[in-house]
Description:
By secondary structure, the chain is α+β, with helices and mostly antiparallel strands. The protein is about 35% helix and about 25% strand.
Amino acid sequence: MAPMPSTEADRALLETHGDALLDLAFRAIETRVKTGAQPTIDPDAHPEALRAPRATFVTLKLRENLRGCLGTVEAWRPLVADAADNAHRAAFDDPRFACLTENELALLDVSISLLTPLEPVEGKNEEAILAAIRPGIDGLVLKEGTTRGLFLPQVWEMLPEPWRFLAELKGKAGLPQDYWSDTLQVLRFTTTSVKRPNPKATA
């Protein structure tokens, strides 16, 4: 069995291949904007490290304002394919925003986050869960039946208090902010990210 990815391993991966991933994500968006087609990704054309199954989130910003953010929670396809498709989806399928335009493309900042595998946050009640959460480090997935909500670790910048972080995540999942049950699942993950401004924006 292949070893589980770690933060250290992901830092090394992005140090070596981060620029290539960012270029790939940007090209996936640019191709759709300019041709109307979604590009096809051939994993075999990329280094072995980028062909391993990984889960990613891609965040798009315009002048520091969110312009799209979508991703995958569990790894099921090659990293290059996941990053390219999530970049495409963030630009054109995020229901909070209209499809990205060619004018916006020239100012677009792209960031890619690699997710570690999900693991449960252990605790018999909400108080124990809150004590186990690591502010600024953990991303959280909340599951209750078919209901699910997710916050990336970056959300701690806006919601630094664990109780508020969890309450807002419940709201995102469509649950009351004071909701609790014995069947509620709280899962954690961490991310390692690579980002850079679009060179065209500063040219």
